[in-house]
Amino acid sequence: MYANAMMHEVKNVALMGLEKTMKGVVLSDEKMDLKVMIEELESSIEVPSVFICPISLEPMQEPVTLCTGQTYDRSNILKWLSLGHKTCPTTMQELWDDSVTPNKTLSHLILTWFFHKYLDMKKKLEDVEGRVLELLDLLKKVKGQARVKALKDLRQIVNAHVCARKVVEKNGGVGLVSSLLGPFTSHAVGSEAIGIIVNLDLSWELKRNLMHPAKVSLVVDIMNEGTIETKMNCAKLIEILLMEGNGSEAEIVSSLSLLVGLMRLVRDKKNPSGVLIGLILLKAICSHESVRSSVVSIGAIPQLINLLPNLNNECLEIALYILEVLSTIPEGRLALKECPNIIPNVVKLLMRVSERCTQFALSILWAIYKLAPEECASQAVEAGLAAKLLLVIQSGCNPVLKQMSSEFLKMCSVNYSTSILISKCMLTTTIQ
């Protein structure tokens, strides 16, 4: 009982504090829909704990109090009681009275608090909209450092507020910002403009405009020289343009400068987000057969192999996919074979991350095996390939992967002593 009394006291103090905070705030419409305000307010808003229903852990819209003194949202507590429960959900005390009493004081405080936050949000949105329109108008007039400053301010607002993006899109801002990209655009202006564009919805016409050789060349140059954030934004923009698939992307993917800059981004171990973005773009580029030999020629294969041990699962799957795609061309297979310790490093990845990773790894090993069967079989078995293949065959993997594993195991046995192969599998006497 003493504990309950203390709990009520704490709640009363909290309510009194909130009431003082709300003093002077007048509701213009007492019937304003609380549900609408809760839904429209940003999810990151921190709601006072006394406003939260202990059952749903959501803000109460119609608080009611039980005989135990505990307050719940009406719909939640009535559902609790309808299930035959005779206790208070929070205290587990037996209810001597199952009636519920509307908590009008708390209800008013909740409505007032949310209304106050709702007005703040609306004012903030109006301020954001006004600032965006002001900056768009300013960009039509200024040049030099003033233009860079206006773009930087606009980029920061667009990154921070979804509503700002909508204002830019509705008021011709996308076209205005993209028009600033050209052969004579400074990297300072270009970096800020690209940082804005990648956060907006681009029409087909605007994407086609951005695929102009002069604009693409600028984006590639900026990606090679900009900050890590700028490099990531450039990679995102190029990926967006490649997804358009209107036939103009061939000129983009054939740029050696782009490939070199992209590999710099992929190798940056200090920025995992940049590595992922770089790998995603490289994957899109490698889908074009005509550019695969160029990717191999800049040393992408040994660089990717060196990265494998340090990649997270998401990046690892993409990297292995890229290596598998590059293994489909003769230059790619030769580059793979010449990588030091590639076979043991790839064998380690079998049955370690995902079924897709295992499939990609097997395809890479298969490509190397075709070039040097005896050498590959020897190194692979020594690295534990046979045991891994048996695990794949006995697992619940897809039939294609099992078939590939079976054939690979047969090929290894042709180029390797059967007795040694079995011993390397570490099979039990029964299985042998």
Task: Provide structural commentary.
The chain is mainly α and 432 residues long. It is 66% helix and 2% strand. It contains 24 helices and 3 strands. The protein has helices at 2-21, 34-40, 74-82, 104-139, 144-160, 162-170, 173-178, 187-197, 204-210, 213-225, 228-244, 249-253, 256-266, 272-286, 292-297, 300-307, 313-326, 330-337, 342-347, 355-371, 373-382, 385-394, 399-414, 418-425, and strands at residues 63-65, 71-73, 101-102. It has a 3-stranded antiparallel beta sheet. Helix 5 (144-160) crosses helix 6 and helix 8 (187-197) packs across helix 10 (213-225). The longest helix has 36 residues, at 104-139. The protein is flat. Residues 46-120 form the U-box domain. Its EC number is 2.3.2.27. Keywords: Transferase, Ubl conjugation pathway. Functions as an E3 ubiquitin ligase.
User: Can you give the mean pLDDT?
Assistant: 82
The helix/strand order is HHEEHEHHHHHHHHHHHHHHHHHHHHH
Task: Give the termini distance in whole angstroms.
Answer: 72 Å
Strands of the biggest beta sheet: in what spatial order?
2-1-3
> In total, how many beta strands?
3
Low-confidence stretches are: 1-11, 13-31, 418-432
Coarse structural class: mainly alpha
Helix content: 55-70%
Q: Biggest sheet, in brief? A: 3 strands, antiparallel
Give the C-alpha Rg: 31 Å
Number of helical segments with 4 or more residues = 24
Shape: flat
Approximately what portion of the residues adopt beta-strand conformation? under 5%
Summarize this structure as a short list of keywords or feature phrases.
432 residues; disordered N terminus; 24 helices; 2% strand
